[in-house]
Amino acid sequence: MARPTMEDVAAKAGVSRALVSLVMRNAPNVSDERRTRVLCAAHDLGYEPHAMARSLASRTSTVLGVMVSDLRNAFFADVVEGLDAAAEAAGFHLILNTGGRSPSRERAALKNLLSFRPAGVILLSPVLQAPAIEDAVAQCPVVLVSRTSRVRDVDTVNDDGEAGSTLAVEHLVSLGHRRIAHLDGGVAAGAAARRRGYQRAMRRHLLHPIIVHSEHTDTAGEKAVHELLGDHPRGGLPTALVAGNDFNAVGAISALEEAGLRVPEDVSVVGYDNTSLAALRHISLTTVDQPRTEMGRLAVEALIERVRGERTEPVRHLLHPSLVVRSTTATLGERVRE
Amino acid sequence: MARPTMEDVAAKAGVSRALVSLVMRNAPNVSDERRTRVLCAAHDLGYEPHAMARSLASRTSTVLGVMVSDLRNAFFADVVEGLDAAAEAAGFHLILNTGGRSPSRERAALKNLLSFRPAGVILLSPVLQAPAIEDAVAQCPVVLVSRTSRVRDVDTVNDDGEAGSTLAVEHLVSLGHRRIAHLDGGVAAGAAARRRGYQRAMRRHLLHPIIVHSEHTDTAGEKAVHELLGDHPRGGLPTALVAGNDFNAVGAISALEEAGLRVPEDVSVVGYDNTSLAALRHISLTTVDQPRTEMGRLAVEALIERVRGERTEPVRHLLHPSLVVRSTTATLGERVRE
DNA sequence: TCTATTGATTAGAGCGCTCTAATCTTGTAG
DNA sequence: CTACAAGATTAGAGCGCTCTAATCAATAGA
Questions:
Q1: Which run of H or of E encompasses A269?
Q2: How far is the CA of B54 from the C1' of D10 (A)?
């Protein structure tokens, strides 16, 4: 278990520890002869540099702290995949925590991450307060994903939720729908922007917004539809729904079908997030796609730019979502499937 | 950005660096007066210990390396949540990588993890070869999750796939089914055990096993059903399916419904994994539940036992899955819903 | 031939901490 | 009073590495 150190390699190769260090970082100005000698010795001994010792000595870090509120949410898992790929490509390593959407747990998680003196920290949809973020910013670059903030000097990566729900409304309007309701995500991340986009798009078309308070879960989606069914006389029911996210949409569809309404023949439904769920042919949900892997990549890039000192001004990425049309939306009044 | 060190705290509190170190590790035999003096100084300066320096000096590690083949798979994401919770509780930290189910990428990922001299390494369903695992074992304790191996001295945490599919078969048999087919997961992790359990259970009931080669994806599930429909004359079609996993099951259900067969009235379907997907009321899949969070916990525990030297013999956890009955299975011949 | 000059190599300090062993206090028994 | 044990504190080495500055060798220029 006691792994060889640079000293051992130096001894075996008959050179100084400093030379081994140069070879390991493949610095120039090392003679080929010595280089291969060192490399061989390292290989024979099974030597690999000690990342922490390196980090300490060089006063630099290859570690990126990642706090994700909840990995069970496929959206975050996808973003983390993007982070991992980008970090790996840039020679960085991820140290990961979950915050469980609890401010106190998130604070503890963040503190843990910072104890590693990471090169930077990425917070995925954190719920913690601005002061905690400011604290972190004082220590290292911070990138917020799926969360906006007025905190100075943090970079943010968000999808343009307003544009996203506008896409959804435009799509439905172009299919002839006019009574389009929105199942609002409440305080969930991004819900406000989505609601705003929906409202503006409706107004632009001189349509009356119908907002049903809901949450980003399937059970909340069902409940919202039940309310809608209760409130509206049979004829006045919306013909289309813009759900807060995919889970919400799936719940809404269940409730509609249970009530004897067919999707999309009677009611069209659009989701949000394009989770793997939406892509299942069994569900085949028309939805708004956030470029998640791209978001992960941008977050890492933003961090690295800061680390390298290439940029000091904050950057706010607003990514353009796109609409993925599947089988839960159809022309108003027509009986189309597929 | 330059954070205070122990030296700074010592200077401010007017004590030695060693005393600060003792306080930070809250060692006994420190006078209350000095302790509070140090704590105040640390607080004023915003001092937090440097985890890497600590690790280097103490020749111990609080880092657990985690290599997950694919985070997009909700099953792994759940296990990672379990790992995180257990690690956090024990004062450990996760450094995470993805291997993307490619042996070479996994090797690189593992090497990266080991460069941090972690206290231990957890591999989630790795595809890499035994020699690579042996290499890792030579460096630190290793736990394999969702993967068995003959490698000496590795701990493993698996669900008892054989028991799982037995549960599925028993359930279906008790509902009166006799023509029960298995959609086999091929080389996917755990597929062999599930197939074995299915076969044995069928034989025990003197039933003829029908195995359709498939994969753990929804499209593969659809394809498998198409094959089944092609092979079997209308009357001889299986009345129940034991799918390789939930995705596979959902695909199968789609294909069945497209072919005009109703689930569960005409065909019952059981999934495997109890992913969040299965719980959606829209899908409401009867499925086999692996205690994922528990698996994560056990993996971390196994590692910590080794770290503490409490155990040197390998341990092989085989967790008991359980059946979650929802709406995709029904008594043969009856027309039940819900 | 002697000095610049450049490139290759190394000594040695130090990153921020822990840990052992030594030192300094006190309290108490003799 | 002295001696000593036990508790509190600290000096200093060292974890495995990097980095600066110094050293050394070899070549080129005068």
A1: strand A268-273
A2: 19
Which residue shows structure tokens 């189309």?
A336
DSSP state of A147: -
Q: What confidence tens digit (pLDDT) does each residue in B264-311 have?
A: 999 999 999 998 889 988 899 999 999 998 999 999 999 999 999 899
Q: A61 in helix, strand or coil? A: coil
pLDDT for residue B276 = 84
Nucleotide nearest to B51 (CA to C1'): C17
Q: Does B276 touch chain A (CB under 8 A)?
A: yes
Distance CA B322, CA A17 (A): 57
Read off the amino acid at residue A189: A
User: Against a cut of 0.70, is the pTM above it?
Assistant: yes
Residues 6+ apart with CB under 8 A from A134: A151, A152
Distance CA B68, CA B116 (A): 17
Render pLDDT for B57-106 as a digit per residue (tens, 0 to 9).
Answer: 999 999 999 999 989 888 899 999 999 999 999 999 999 999 999 999 99
Judged by CB atoms closer than 8 Å, whether chains meet at B253 and A84 is answered as no
**Could you tell me the distance in Å between the CA of residue A10 and the C1' of nucleotide C10?**
12
Angstrom distance (rounded) from CA A100 to CA A88: 25
Cβ within 8 Å of A, B 185-244: 218-219, 222
User: ∠A244-A250-A253 over CA atoms, to 5°?
Assistant: 105
Nearest nt to the A13 alpha carbon by C1': C9
- Hey, is the C-beta of A44 within 8 angstroms of any chain B C-beta? no
Q: What is the pLDDT of residues B119-150, one digit of tens each?
A: 999 999 999 999 999 999 999 999 999 999 99
d(CA B265, CA B250): 16
